Amino acid sequence: MLVTRDDVLAFDREHLWHPYASIADPAPVRQVVGAAGARLRLADGAEVVDGMSSWWSAIHGYRHPVLDAAAHAQLDEFAHVMFGGLTHAPAVELGRRLVAMTPEPLQRVFLADSGSVAVEVAIKMTLQHQRGCGRTERTRMLTVLGGYHGDTFHAMSVTDPLGGMHRMWRGMLPEQVFAPQPPRADAGAWEIAAWADAFRTVAAAHAGELAGIIVEPLLQGAGGMHPYPAACLETFREVADEHGLVLVFDEIATGFGRTGRLFASELVVPDILCVGKALTGGYLSLAAVLTSDEVAQGVSASDSGVIMHGPTFMANPLACAIASASLDLLTSSDWAASVQRIGTALRAGLAGLRGLPGVADVRTIGAVGIVQLDHGVEVAAATDAALAQGVWLRPFRDLVYVMPPYVTSDEELDRLVRGVEAAVRAG
């Protein structure tokens, strides 16, 4: 058994592969030995405010007593059972909550085991629906530049092929259709109209081969942390209806209040909605794909007659039980006020960074704060500088950003702002 911090870190360096990391020259990592609220406790004794919500999932913070109790209660019953031919109360209860809190047409729920898998399922549903409608020639997806939808192959295929992190896979992925990136959130009416015209033109040029549209509504996440106008969602819906396309909203990163709305789908209703990340409050991996009866009937009319997907850990009871508790916790709280409080603090705190050398832009949406540099971030230096301020950040590309837990206190928000400034100055 590895006991000391040095032992743990040495084994990690020699044997464990971290995300987006080199095995030949691994970047330094920090060992977490405890977590509570919005803070992480590191093996060196430091206690740091988590500005990442563990990649945007831990909206209630760590070791929340309600979620801990849900986990313990389900463990006392059973942790897992296959979903093929069986069902269980945690899955049914979670499905009931999701149907109740999302737009009315979204009545059918597929419980997947990760965000990327949810995107794969959504694309598969789209393609099967078109086949069931007799449109077998419709095999491509339409999306916009600047997006990110996950690391599996079809998810990578609808991620930005030029500036995205998966551009090395061009030529090996399904070839999808890309329209221009939506304008900035503060764009004027003429800019939005010009973009909408361009999007419509691309869609019309490929209409006969398109099966659906997939986008991240309101905020493009790991593709560049790009907020855009709500009016663009109406264009997506209108184009989908005009050409008989299935509209997919990927709200894996933005759902459950992060943008200031519970879901962007409250503004414009998609045909398929993907959620994940914050679904379990960051406790376990779980995602869901919700769709309408119309799409579901199309899938059922396709060659197979069934949805052709079935993960081993689909509808894991432990994850479902925690997810239901997480959703109850969210909807019984004044989450909107928390998101607004965080957003106000980030807007005020980060505004002064606009004048710093190397800063290209500062922007916020909901409980998200973003500083874009005019160069790639020196991640190691930026991370060290943030940690020196008692803050955990994970910069990438040219971005230093925060998406803190909703329970983050005002004092912790002040510390996060200081950490971002330190990271920007160092990176």
UniProtKB/TrEMBL annotation:
<feature type="binding site">
    <location>
        <position position="277"/>
    </location>
    <ligand>
        <name>substrate</name>
    </ligand>
</feature>
<feature type="site" description="Participates in the substrate recognition with KAPA and in a stacking interaction with the adenine ring of SAM">
    <location>
        <position position="20"/>
    </location>
</feature>
<feature type="binding site">
    <location>
        <begin position="115"/>
        <end position="116"/>
    </location>
    <ligand>
        <name>pyridoxal 5'-phosphate</name>
    </ligand>
</feature>
<feature type="binding site">
    <location>
        <position position="394"/>
    </location>
    <ligand>
        <name>substrate</name>
    </ligand>
</feature>
<dbReference type="Pfam" id="PF00202">
    <property type="entry name" value="Aminotran_3"/>
</dbReference>
<comment type="subunit">
    <text>Homodimer.</text>
</comment>
<dbReference type="InterPro" id="IPR049704">
    <property type="entry name" value="Aminotrans_3_PPA_site"/>
</dbReference>
<comment type="function">
    <text>Catalyzes the transfer of the alpha-amino group from S-adenosyl-L-methionine (SAM) to 7-keto-8-aminopelargonic acid (KAPA) to form 7,8-diaminopelargonic acid (DAPA). It is the only aminotransferase known to utilize SAM as an amino donor.</text>
</comment>
<feature type="binding site">
    <location>
        <position position="55"/>
    </location>
    <ligand>
        <name>substrate</name>
    </ligand>
</feature>
<dbReference type="InterPro" id="IPR015421">
    <property type="entry name" value="PyrdxlP-dep_Trfase_major"/>
</dbReference>
<comment type="similarity">
    <text>Belongs to the class-III pyridoxal-phosphate-dependent aminotransferase family. BioA subfamily.</text>
</comment>
<comment type="pathway">
    <text>Cofactor biosynthesis; biotin biosynthesis; 7,8-diaminononanoate from 8-amino-7-oxononanoate (SAM route): step 1/1.</text>
</comment>
<feature type="modified residue" description="N6-(pyridoxal phosphate)lysine">
    <location>
        <position position="277"/>
    </location>
</feature>
<feature type="binding site">
    <location>
        <position position="148"/>
    </location>
    <ligand>
        <name>substrate</name>
    </ligand>
</feature>
<feature type="binding site">
    <location>
        <position position="310"/>
    </location>
    <ligand>
        <name>substrate</name>
    </ligand>
</feature>
<protein>
    <recommendedName>
        <fullName>Adenosylmethionine-8-amino-7-oxononanoate aminotransferase</fullName>
        <ecNumber>2.6.1.62</ecNumber>
    </recommendedName>
</protein>
<feature type="binding site">
    <location>
        <position position="250"/>
    </location>
    <ligand>
        <name>pyridoxal 5'-phosphate</name>
    </ligand>
</feature>
<dbReference type="InterPro" id="IPR015422">
    <property type="entry name" value="PyrdxlP-dep_Trfase_small"/>
</dbReference>
<keyword id="KW-0663">Pyridoxal phosphate</keyword>
<keyword id="KW-0963">Cytoplasm</keyword>
<dbReference type="InterPro" id="IPR005814">
    <property type="entry name" value="Aminotrans_3"/>
</dbReference>
<keyword id="KW-0093">Biotin biosynthesis</keyword>
<keyword id="KW-0949">S-adenosyl-L-methionine</keyword>
<feature type="binding site">
    <location>
        <begin position="311"/>
        <end position="312"/>
    </location>
    <ligand>
        <name>pyridoxal 5'-phosphate</name>
    </ligand>
</feature>
<keyword id="KW-0808">Transferase</keyword>
<dbReference type="InterPro" id="IPR005815">
    <property type="entry name" value="BioA"/>
</dbReference>
<dbReference type="InterPro" id="IPR015424">
    <property type="entry name" value="PyrdxlP-dep_Trfase"/>
</dbReference>
<keyword id="KW-0032">Aminotransferase</keyword>
